[in-house]
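JOB MANIFEST
job_type = single_chain_structure
chain_count = 1
residues = 411
[input]
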Amino acid sequence: MVAGAMSVGLDFLDELPDGPIGLAVSGGSDSVALLVLTVDWARNYGRSVFVVTLDHGLRVEAAMEAEGVAAICKDLRVSHDILHWDGHYKGNMQDAARRVRQRLIGDWAKERRLVAVATGHTRDDQAETFLLRLKRGSGVDGLSGMAPCIEKDGILWVRPLLRQRRDALRATLASRGVSWVDDPSNEDVQYDRIKVRNILKLMVETGISVDVIADTAERMRTARSALEQTTFDVAQIVAEPRHIGSIRVNVTALERQSKEVQLRLLAHALRWVSGSDYRPRLTALKHALTAVFEGKGHSLSGCLISKAKAGVVEVSREVSAVKVANANSGLFDGRWVCDIAQGEWRPLGAEGLAHFPNWRDTAEHRNALLASPSLWYNNELKSAPLLGNNLIYKCRLRDGPESFFNSILTH
């Protein structure tokens, strides 16, 4: 790495495949430091850098801050785009803003054909995240903090500054005469992150510093990796992902595993089938696992867990949790890629299954068939591709059945 960049600890960029890199820059000190240091690195290695700023519409100053980033990029002679969001959201504002930011920047990165998008998260952010998740009662996964690299929806996100302290980055910017913007919301104690940030300042006096907490998060990440690998190995034995989008689980084999692995595997099955970003709450997950071992049916996270039959349960999508999709979109239930057509893709349901009196010959569970994609036009069934009806129209799992195994490992 470049000598100057190495002194402030830019990580991971050298390991990225050839191609242009994206930078998400808000105008705050962390992301501006990311911009300046990455441009230095890119020029030494002949790499292309593209910068994006999201005007989230949540503050009147946001547009001006975006223009400030544009000015810095102009001085550095790098490409800069401003994306816009109207600030409309439902529920938790910060969570909604994060989701919108990932979606819009992800789409931007795909259009630019970038090999990765880097963000300016620091060691301070890592410590704050640890404490926020501790407050929520998180286990090993939550307390392992933010990953240095993660792939989501086809985009590789990297955090090259995750080992760096915010004060050091600001000192670097000041020495180079580069200014940044301090978001006034960083002083608003209505947000939990700001409360935690203030608490951290007090904890230093007791010897519990940002570095101590971040080091603990890193050790938890090592433990998480070990648990994920064990769960991956067990999944190969006890779980069978189906092309119809469900998971079959051998209950007898699952019972021989540790409780932690049992819970992890069931949580992952529920996430994979539902397409959810989050695992169920621990209490609800434990109830579901008890139902599995007692041979009872159960519903959780938009999924149905069947009663055990011949020592096997099936985790399928719950029909009522699936939204109808316009057939022009090419997507169904967030994880199916479907042919473009007239009408709408919807779960087959009981009405559709009635067209297939010999459905048992498919060897698929009834719950899985009910939730499978089907094409309807004017309320008339046109295609049920997973039952072999009208194969002019097709649907496939976006990442394939094998993604069930691969997505267990997050490192």
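[summary]
Confidence is low (pLDDT under 50) at residues 1-6.
The CA atoms of residues 6 and 41 lie 9 Å apart.
exit_status = 0
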